[in-house]
Amino acid sequence: QGQEKLSCNPKKENGTHVVLCELGNPMKAGARITVDMELSVSGLEDIGEAITFHLQLRSKNSPSPSNASVTVTVPVEAEAEMELRGNSLPATTVLPTSWHWVEGSQRLEDHGIKVEHVYELHNKGPSTVSGVTLSIVIPHLLGDHVLLYLLELGTEGGMNCSHHPPLNPAQV
């Protein structure tokens, strides 16, 4: 006839999170009720593609005529907006046409003009992300000639990087 709020109590049972809701006591024989439940679940970043709820209606009457149960699977969709920012220092570099790489030199200036590329990957949310792969391809050869001599690669924020070709092959 009317709408009532249920009193529900969360607890752990055999390693499973259980929420017990009391629907009414006593309930008349043959009574029909409809229950709408809204559940808020956190920590779903690494849960996979779906979460499954097992719902069971239990009676405290002895003996219980039925313990009807149903399984509901809800797809999990994480949403996060990623943003990549990048810049080069200096922003513009002009190489002299008469410049040549000095083979065997250990001085940085004999290998070219220093250019630093900085990239920042930002998660604008609303969800957290994991397992992100960012591939940056930097042309280091022009034919058989060195275009960019890759000196070092640094990261911040617990990232893992792999690189090809090897960094600083002449040990400058």
Automatic annotation (TrEMBL):
<dbReference type="Pfam" id="PF20806">
    <property type="entry name" value="Integrin_A_Ig_3"/>
</dbReference>
<dbReference type="InterPro" id="IPR048286">
    <property type="entry name" value="Integrin_alpha_Ig-like_3"/>
</dbReference>
<dbReference type="InterPro" id="IPR048285">
    <property type="entry name" value="Integrin_alpha_Ig-like_2"/>
</dbReference>
<dbReference type="GO" id="GO:0008305">
    <property type="term" value="C:integrin complex"/>
</dbReference>
<keyword id="KW-0401">Integrin</keyword>
<dbReference type="GO" id="GO:0009897">
    <property type="term" value="C:external side of plasma membrane"/>
</dbReference>
<protein>
    <submittedName>
        <fullName>ITA2B protein</fullName>
    </submittedName>
</protein>
<dbReference type="GO" id="GO:0007229">
    <property type="term" value="P:integrin-mediated signaling pathway"/>
</dbReference>
<feature type="domain" description="Integrin alpha second immunoglobulin-like">
    <location>
        <begin position="3"/>
        <end position="76"/>
    </location>
</feature>
<dbReference type="GO" id="GO:0098609">
    <property type="term" value="P:cell-cell adhesion"/>
</dbReference>
<dbReference type="Pfam" id="PF20805">
    <property type="entry name" value="Integrin_A_Ig_2"/>
</dbReference>
<keyword id="KW-0472">Membrane</keyword>
<dbReference type="GO" id="GO:0007160">
    <property type="term" value="P:cell-matrix adhesion"/>
</dbReference>
<dbReference type="GO" id="GO:0033627">
    <property type="term" value="P:cell adhesion mediated by integrin"/>
</dbReference>
<dbReference type="GO" id="GO:0005178">
    <property type="term" value="F:integrin binding"/>
</dbReference>
<dbReference type="InterPro" id="IPR032695">
    <property type="entry name" value="Integrin_dom_sf"/>
</dbReference>
<feature type="domain" description="Integrin alpha third immunoglobulin-like">
    <location>
        <begin position="83"/>
        <end position="171"/>
    </location>
</feature>
<keyword id="KW-0325">Glycoprotein</keyword>
<dbReference type="GO" id="GO:0001525">
    <property type="term" value="P:angiogenesis"/>
</dbReference>
